[in-house]
Write a structure and sequence with these properties.
With 117 residues, the protein is of the alpha+beta class. Helix content is 43%, strand content 14%. The protein has a 3-stranded mixed β-sheet with strand order 1-3-2.
C-alpha cells in the first residue's frame, strides 16, 4: 500500500478548516502569527508534522514590537505518510494545528501530551 495522496490545495483546505474549528475566543487573542503549509520539514526533522517558530504570547512584553510574525508550519507529506484515510488526515491536521497554536499560547509539549495533543 502506498502513501495516501492529496493535492496541496486539498491539504491547505483541511488546514483552513482546522483553523476555523478553533474557538473564536482563542483566535481573537492570537497575535502576529501566520500558518503555512510546506511539503516536508528539513531532512534532520523528517518526522515532524508541524512546527511553531516564534515568541509565545506568554513571553512577550513591552519590548515586543516590529518583529516578524511567528510561524506555524504544517507539513503535508509526513501527515499523509502517517494516515491511512482522508478522515485520518482531517483529524491529524486538526490535532497538529491545535498543537502548534498551543505553543503560540506558551503551552509546552509535556502539557500537550497530557492533554492528548
Amino acid at each position: 500500500m502506498g502513501m495516501l495522496t492529496m493535492t496541496r490545495e486539498e491539504f491547505e483546505e483541511l488546514v483552513a478548516d482546522a483553523l476555523d474549528s478553533v474557538p473564536p475566543q482563542l483566535t481573537a487573542v492570537m497575535s502576529n502569527v501566520v500558518v503555512l503549509v510546506e511539503d516536508k520539514p528539513a531532512a534532520a526533522q523528517s518526522n515532524l508534522l508541524g512546527l511553531y517558530e516564534g515568541i509565545p504570547l506568554t513571553r512577550r512584553g513591552g519590548w515586543y514590537s516590529g518583529v516578524l510574525p511567528d510561524r506555524i508550519t504544517v507539513y503535508r507529506l509526513p501527515i499523509l505518510r502517517l494516515c491511512a484515510t482522508r478522515e485520518d488526515v482531517v483529524q491529524q491536521v486538526r490535532t497538529t494545528v491545535i498543537h502548534e497554536i498551543a505553543h503560540h499560547f506558551g503551552i509546552g509539549d509535556e502539557r500537550l501530551e497530557q492533554l492528548g495533543y
